[in-house]
Amino acid sequence: MTLVRLLLVCLFVLVVAAGSNPAFAQDDQDNQPHITPRKEEKQQRIARPTPTPQPQQPAASGAQQPQEAGESSGSGNDAETGTSSSRDSQIDFNAGPRSAPVNAANADVSYDPHRAQKDLEVGNYYLKQKNYRAALERFHDALLYKPNDAEAIYGLGVTQEKLELFSVAYNSYSKYLEILPNGPRGKEAEEGAKRMEQHLSPEDIQSSTARRAAEDISQGEKFLSRNEYDAARESFERALRLTPDNPAISFRLGQSLEGLQQPDAARMYYQKYLQIQPNGPFAAAAKKNIAQINDMIGK
Q: What separation in angstroms does the CA of 48 have from each of 43, 44, 45, 52, 233?
């Protein structure tokens, strides 16, 4: 019995020692957690794609690059630069007189009937709106691009009369009658010229007629120098109606008709020149031309 008790005591001591020492503790499922926590997945960071910088295209000539917000243009004013002036392709009826009128000094003016027609339309609009200064400018511009345009000349005369520019208005009305004596505005132009005569002296009228004739002669000689014989003939015929006794016009008209292969008519004007001025500066040339025509077609 004593031995059994001793064994029991030793066994009890061992059990107590094992419970107090973790090294001797047996694995027990109850000592383990019943729910194994899930491993947290690492959240994938989605990287935004970095935009590839686009190469800047060179700015086209005359084009304006858009500015970013807050970007300064580098100048003190806000005027647009590099923009095209399309006033002749788009008519702006709200605009007043142009700050830089077209004239032979500041523009390379060439024959452009399409542009002249646009200026004529805008000029007529301003005339109806009684904006006479703007109308005056547009009619002048139309005549730069299409000289001797009868409609523009008539509109110019009406505008000049409204501005009480009687002398030049008389010239414009008379010029229209020279170009289109039986034109659609012929009656109005004739009445306008008569109204202007009331404000002019006979000397002014004579001087005005001489100036218009000189302009036609100058224009005709310009056409003649370019072998544009028909245009030259028209200019000289207008000048001759104004000053029928001017010998130089008869000689130039003979040259124009000879260039148009009308020798009979050319000879008649050469002879007229010799009748008016037999010893004039063109007398020798007139006689020579008459002789050539006689040899070609006979007397």
A: 15, 12, 9, 12, 81
Answer whether residue 79 is part of any domain.
no
Contact (CB, 8 A) for 244 and 254: no
Total tally of structural domains belonging to the chain: 1
**DSSP codes, 229-285:** HHHHHHHHHHHHHH-TT-HHHHHHHHHHHHHTT-HHHHHHHHHHHHHH-TTSTTHHH
CATH of the domain at 100: 1.25.40.10
**CA–CA gap between residue 254 and residue 242 (Å, rounded):** 17
**What is residue 75's DSSP assignment?**
S
The residue range of the domain holding 128 is: 94-200
pTM over 0.70: no
Three-class DSSP category at 6: helix
pLDDT tens digits for 56-105? 544 444 444 444 333 334 434 433 333 333 344 344 444 444 544 444 43
Burial of 66 per CB tally in 10 Å (0-12, 13-18, 19+): exposed
